């Protein structure tokens, strides 16, 4: 049955009538956030102490924590070194489904190596992993989409660590999305095991002295906003102010969009979260905002980096300059070209998914193994609409 446009139309009308009031309330919150930002822009020590006290009261606190640079710091991009290597990795996956003829999953990782300042051509790498039998189960049961996604993130870092190990020139290693992996709120042994593997790959990237980073386009984060909210706590009642979330709806982009000029980055911040105790020393997670594009067409991105990059002015400048140059290559709608190409390499289409399934079915039948048909639900779903790619 199609969308009930008559019903949704009335809801859209209601949405429109409330939009002006919502925008007015949001603007008031934005003004309050900017006022707090200005008041504390040179008071990093006070803000750091707020974070320490709040985390002691509320262990799941997730917010930014300032470093040495003032909140209103902005730094223009410097031209990167003449010769360096740009690496990017992205992943795609086929999630296992009991509704298919045979249950399997696939993790496909694509990487692009692009030498800068050299006459060498770019080189693509693809690594494909089939999940089957025992690989479809964890200690908690059947593998879910979140766990497959975490496995994909791990494989991306493994491939980058493998590639950077071979490099002699300075290397920039980019992935799309944050460096901090998603964690389910409940204890999960499989997550902990895979997280430790993930940390090992990050350490190897650090040993290779790569300028590793996760690029988040059009970020919806409010990490700095949550930091500023801590300053509103009365009598150090941080738990109450965290749960109240008085600046809800305001995003970090609202603070930095007008502060930065194209090519500039913001101050460095540390990430305070329940995973902070895992990412320590050289792995300590930081981030900054960067404005990419031109005066007429610019956008803001958040860039997450590990501690060894944050503490190296040379790697930090190399990373910033490389990102700016890559975004300039695509013209309108700035986004790092090398990440776009890695995504194209990694993408698994629906046709490819069905081809893999046919190959597995043929092999199983050749082994004399009986396979069931697709579920009736999946059969009927396949008859409705068209899909061109598999997610």
Account of the protein in words:
- The two termini are 23 Å apart.
- This protein is 42% helix and 20% strand.
- The longest helix is centred in the first third of the chain and has 35 residues, at 5-39.
- The radius of gyration is 23 Å and the shape is globular.
- It has 391 residues and is an alpha+beta fold.
- The strands form three sheets. The chain has a nine-stranded mixed beta sheet with strand order 1-11-12-13-9-8-3-4-5, sandwiched between helices. Strands 2-10 form a two-stranded antiparallel ribbon.
- Helix 3 packs parallel to helix 4.
- It is built from twelve helices and 13 strands.
- The chain has helices at 5-39, 44-57, 145-164, 189-207, 223-230, 238-244, 252-256, 307-310, 313-329, 337-346, 350-366, 376-382; strands at 63-66, 74-76, 84-94, 105-116, 123-131, 137-138, 141-142, 171-176, 211-217, 264-266, 269-272, 286-293, 298-305.
Oligomer: single chain
How many helical elements? 12
**Low-confidence segments:** none
- Alpha-carbon Rg, integer: 23 Å
Through-space gap between termini: 23 Å
Biggest sheet overview: 9 strands, mixed
| Broad structural category | alpha+beta
Shape: globular
Q: What is the average per-residue confidence, as pLDDT, rounded to a whole number?
A: 89
Could you give the order of strands across the largest sheet?
Answer: 1-11-12-13-9-8-3-4-5
Provide the helix percentage.
40-55%
What is the strand tally? 13
Q: Which range does the strand content fall in?
A: 15-25%
Order of helices and strands: HHEEEEEEEHEHEHHHEEEEHHHHH
């Amino acid at each position: 049955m199609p969308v009930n446009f008559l019903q949704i139309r009335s809801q859209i009308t209601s949405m429109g009538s409330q939009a002006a009031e919502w925008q007015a309330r949001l603007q008031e919150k934005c003004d309050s956030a900017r006022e707090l930002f200005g008041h504390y822009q040179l008071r990093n020590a006070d803000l750091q102490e707020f974070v320490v006290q709040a985390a002691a009261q509320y262990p799941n606190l997730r917010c930014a924590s300032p470093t040495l640079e003032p909140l209103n710091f902005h730094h223009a991009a410097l031209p990167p070194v003449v010769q360096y290597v740009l690496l990017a990795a992205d992943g795609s996956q086929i999630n296992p489904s009991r509704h298919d003829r045979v249950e399997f999953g696939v993790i496909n990782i694509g990487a692009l190596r692009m030498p800068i300042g050299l006459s060498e051509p770019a080189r693509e790498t693809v690594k494909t992993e089939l999940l089957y039998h025992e690989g479809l189960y964890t200690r908690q049961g059947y593998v879910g989409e979140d766990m497959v996604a975490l496995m994909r993130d791990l494989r991306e870092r493994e491939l980058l660590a493998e590639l950077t190990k071979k490099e002699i020139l300075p290397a920039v290693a980019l992935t799309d999305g944050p460096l901090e992996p998603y964690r389910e709120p409940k204890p999960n042994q499989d997550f902990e095991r895979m997280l430790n593997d993930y940390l090992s790959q990050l350490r190897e990237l650090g040993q290779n002295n790569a300028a590793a980073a996760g690029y988040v386009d059009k970020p919806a984060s409010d990490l700095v906003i949550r930091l500023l909210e801590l300053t509103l706590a009365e009598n150090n009642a941080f738990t109450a102010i965290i749960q109240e979330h008085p600046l809800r709806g305001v995003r970090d982009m609202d603070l930095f969009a007008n502060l930065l000029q194209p090519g500039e980055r913001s101050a460095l911040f540390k990430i305070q979260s329940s995973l902070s105790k895992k990412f320590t020393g050289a792995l300590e997670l930081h981030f900054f905002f960067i404005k990419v594009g031109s005066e007429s067409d610019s956008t803001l991105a958040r860039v997450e980096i590990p501690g060894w990059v944050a503490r190296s002015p040379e790697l930090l400048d190399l990373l910033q300059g490389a990102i700016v140059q890559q975004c300039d290559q695509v013209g309108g709608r700035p986004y790092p070209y090398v990440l776009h190409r890695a995504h194209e390499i990694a993408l698994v289409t629906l046709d490819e998914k069905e081809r893999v399934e046919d190959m597995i079915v043929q092999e199983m039948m050749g082994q004399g193994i009986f396979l069931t048909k697709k579920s009736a639900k999946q059969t009927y779903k396949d008859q409705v609409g068209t899909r061109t790619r598999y997610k």
